[in-house]
Amino acid sequence: MKHQFKSNKNVVYSCKYHIVWCPKYRRSVLKSGVDIRLKEILQQIAQEIQVDILEMEIMPDHVHLLVEVDPQFGVHKAIKRFKGASSRYLRQEFPHLKSRLPTLWSNSYFISTVGGAPLEVIKQYIQFQKEV
Fold first, then answer.
1. Are 117 and 16 in contact (CB under 8 A)?
2. Taking the model in full, what pTM does it have?
3. By residue range, what is the domain housing residue 22?
């Protein structure tokens, strides 16, 4: 498989990350249409901040993303935007999320660079999360 690199004015890079985060108290609230809307919102945010979402799966109690992020933008900024904007939009559109949770997302998240395992293995792992 040919290695794909991206570049900006100063950097040639290939920075892929597996990111996972959960709703507050790991509540199973990402269902009944919330999951579909969350996918749309995350795609929209990714376009705005020029982050490539390579794979995405929304489980009832957590979110999996495989993303490629410009290192000069920073993966922490991307996660902050994903969580902040999606919380705001979802809580406006789904009022029941306001009554059940003080905030939509927990403060923490999991992040792992993708380098040790082949990209296809991680993509398959994310794709098959719903079957587990």
1. no
2. 0.87
3. 6-131
